Amino acid sequence: MRYIDKLTDANNLVDAFRKASAGSIWKSSVQKYEMNLLKNVRKTQLDLRAGKYKQGEFLEFELNERGHNRRIKALGIADRVVQRTLCDEVLVPELQKYLVYDNGASQKDKGVDFCRRRLDTHLRKYYRLYGNEGYFLHIDFRKFFDNIRHDKLLEAFQEKLDDEDVMVILREMVHSFRIDISYSDEDLLNQIFNSMEYAKIPAELKTGERFMQKSVGIGSQVSQVAGVFFPTKIDTYCKIVRSCKFYGRYMDDIYIIHHDKEFLRSVLDGVREQSAEVGLFINEKKTQMFKLSHGFSFLKVKYNLTDTGKIIKRPARVNITRQRRKMKKFRKLVDEGAMSLEDARNEVKSWLGSNSKLNAYRTCQNIRQLYRDLFSEELS
Q1: Contact at 8 Å (CB) between 67 and 147?
Q2: Rounded CA gap, 119 and 147, in Å?
Q3: Bridge partners of residue 71, in order along the sequence
Q4: pLDDT tens for residues 130-179?
Q5: More confident residue, 211 or 25
Q6: Measured between alpha carbons, how far is 295 from 297 in angstroms, rounded to an integer?
Q7: pLDDT, tens only, 184-216
Q8: Residue 252 pLDDT more than 70?
Q9: What is the C-alpha separation between 330 and 332, in angstroms, rounded?
């Protein structure tokens, strides 16, 4: 079946609506779309087949996620249906075959837990070969989603898909993220872009006279697919060209384990070159090399590989501090009626469930005690 046939199949579109509407906060929009579901699906089919599909405007807002303020770009239900169908039926099945196994973000049967398990596996295999003497290189990108260039992303999509019908739709979606830079005459395309700082620029200076084709907004499924797929060239360079056996990536976080520090430095230089070619920027402040025997952090977990081969994992201190602050805010929100006690309870239980898998018995007991002190009840 051709890509456009999959994208315009009525069953696929209806299924995409069911998935896109599940848990949506835009209840009235979802209900309005559902009242005339077949009519709306038919209109979508005709627009896509005729090449007339135009994506609607984004609803933009800020969200604090794990201590980071992020600019979210959300779409209406009609556009979410199209994106869901495109991603589920075309992009994910076709692009997944080009991903390395240790690329663990936003894929079926993968995620944070998968990446942590793979890191455990890599540490055990490394220990059997070299003991706990060696180095852990952590590479991080600056404003990853903000600095994905549209020309480079579409070029990568085109190379793997080679279907003009789908590329027309993808260009429409990707170009919808363009940034109005009428306020400046500088070459901002080759500079680090920060969407949070951009949001502070007065709207009257964004006149629509000049745009930058860069950035993909968080909150869009196409953006998530782009984040997973776009650095594949870097994955391939590390895994295939440089033969890094102990390598993993979770979106914009990369780790490499090796016994030779100079080798890791040369790989990092190569990653810098690969990143520059596609327009990404290495975060030099967060990109660091650690001795395995001294411990290191990855995905909010502090790791220690002992001289006996035992892997000790504890929550990162910043993670614990953030959770304690959140719980105190929850108490205030519950008192004000802005949050239910059940929601506060479930959030704390979720945190405990995640961190109980680590070597963190005392930490979890302290969090339980803080909950008792704040909410005067026991957690089951």
Answers
A1: no
A2: 27
A3: 62
A4: 999 999 999 999 999 999 999 999 999 999 998 888 899 999 999 999 99
A5: 211
A6: 7
A7: 999 999 999 998 899 899 999 999 999 999 999
A8: yes
A9: 5
Residue position matching structure tokens 């390598």? 247
Contact (Cβ atoms closer than 8 angstroms) between residue 98 and residue 248:
no
Place of tokens 């989603």: 145
Measuring CA to CA, which residue among 226, 252, 251 is closest to residue 140? 252
Q: What are phi and psi of 124, to 5 degrees?
A: -65, -45
Give the tokens for residue 61. 């807002």
Distance CA 69, CA 198 (A): 13
Distance CA 358, CA 239 (A): 29
Strand order of the β-sheet with 246-250 is 246-250, 253-258, 135-140, 288-291
d(CA 311, CA 307): 10
Torsion of CA 359, 360, 365, 369, to 10 degrees: -170
Tokens of 132: 């706990």
Tokens of 117: 């398990």
